[in-house]
TrEMBL record:
Source species: Actinoplanes octamycinicus
Annotated TM spans: 70-89
Protein name in the entry: Uncharacterized protein
Keywords, in A-Z order: Membrane, Transmembrane, Transmembrane helix
Length: 392
């Protein structure tokens, strides 16, 4: 049976093994010892066989070195070592993929401090007044956090600022949806850091109502940066409009001019419903406003839906409403959609009787009367003191 000689430590191992049991190096096969040729007693003893022995002539022969298996084994060893090194670097946080994994792992645990620590220029994002959603409160509940993140292989890109950059694809679950989001990792000189791995949330259709995202108040801002995850957006109800709520996640978009990829979370509310009792309140105020208009003696009462063009001076008018219109509210009006007000409308049945006395341009006293139809135009708006109705 052939013996196996380790090229590194020289140890013999069984021929069916490809690695040295002592040093784990690849081995080379050598032949079994050749029986010595009979010689005279004075002849020198035969030397031991070995891979380094060569003779120009004589009774001994050595099998040539098997260099091809050695080279192949070393190549495999180098490849395995490289793969292990890359895996160790990723596991230890020394790769773009590892930084992305650590970031989403921190978010999954609600650890905002750790997440910010992995971002480039993190100090600017610690201003909670400017970035209210980059706080622990916005990730207080697990349903707001990204889940089951899967990080793909990084691709080097020229988009890095201040050094090399890598685009790392990440897929995660949020609000029972799968979200695909690329994050940018840069070599900041002090290690790998994420370049603004955030989502821009934009609110529309709140109609003057106070807005919260994951329970955090947005204040007067309609746009805010947020960590990746799910966003429960609520427009609080008031005396005029009922509460509206929705849940949104990040969506990929491109800036039209630059073609830059950004991630937006659109939060556009549908047409709001009126708050309970608001319709009756508005109708009552509208009828009260009409009665107030009827007490005027002017030809053009201010803030009233009816009036006369008198061809003279010194006019006094007596108004009597003979038919009140049915007032309704149009919260779906596109003209008012971005406003906190709602538009008033009617059914066109309003009528008023008038009696006017005036002096015409010749100096003669005149008296006239008649009936006119009128339409209501106006708005209703929520104020700290309740609903305010204005007629025009």
């Amino acid at each position: 049976m052939e013996s196996v000689l380790c090229f590194r430590c020289g140890g013999d191992v069984p021929a069916d093994q490809q690695w040295c049991g002592c040093c784990a190096a690849p081995v080379v096969t050598v032949p079994a010892p050749i029986p010595p040729v009979p010689t005279s007693p004075a002849a020198p003893a035969a030397p031991l066989p070995g891979p380094s022995l060569t003779f120009a002539s004589g009774p001994f022969s050595v099998r040539p070195k098997r260099t091809a298996p050695i080279i192949a084994a070393v190549a495999v060893l180098a490849l395995v070592a490289g793969v292990l090194a890359l895996g160790a670097a990723r596991y230890a946080g020394n790769s773009p993929e590892a930084v992305a994994e650590d970031y989403f792992d921190a978010l999954a645990h609600g650890d905002v401090t750790a997440a910010l620590g992995l971002m480039a220029a993190a100090d600017m994002f610690r201003d909670t007044a400017r970035y209210p959603l980059l706080t622990g409160a916005a990730l207080a509940e697990e349903r707001y956090r990204p889940r089951d993140p899967r990080v793909g292989d990084a691709t080097e890109t020229a988009a890095g600022i201040g050094g090399r950059g890598w685009r790392v694809p990440v897929s995660y679950r949020a609000a029972d949806r799968t979200v695909d989001q690329n994050v940018l990792v840069i070599d900041s000189g002090g290690g790998y850091r994420l370049q603004a791995p955030l989502v821009l949330l934009g609110v529309d259709g709140e109609r003057g109502r106070a807005v919260t995202v994951n329970g955090v108040a947005l204040g007067r801002s309609r746009n805010a940066y947020a960590f990746p995850g799910a966003y429960e957006v609520v427009a609080a109800g008031n005396t005029l409009l009922a509460e509206s709520r929705l849940t949104t996640v990040a969506q990929r978009a491109e800036v039209p001019v630059t073609g830059q990829t950004v991630y937006l979370a659109p939060a556009r509310f549908d047409v709001p419903q009126l708050a309970g009792g608001a319709q009756e309140n508005i109708r009552g105020q509208a009828l009260t406003a009409l009665d107030r208009c009827a007490t005027s003696t002017e030809a053009q009462p201010a803030g009233c839906p009816f009036g006369l063009n008198i061809p003279g001076t010194g006019a006094t008018v007596r108004w009597t409403i003979t038919a009140y219109p049915v007032v309704s509210v149009r919260s779906d009006s596109s003209f008012w959609f971005t406003s906190s007000a709602v538009q008033l409308a009617d059914d066109g049945t309003g009528r008023v009787h008038w009696s006017a006395r005036y002096t015409d341009y010749t100096g003669a006293a005149k008296a006239q009367s008649g009936d006119s139809a009128f339409r209501i135009y106006g708005s209703a708006q929520a104020t700290p003191n309740g609903i305010q109705v204005s007629l025009t």
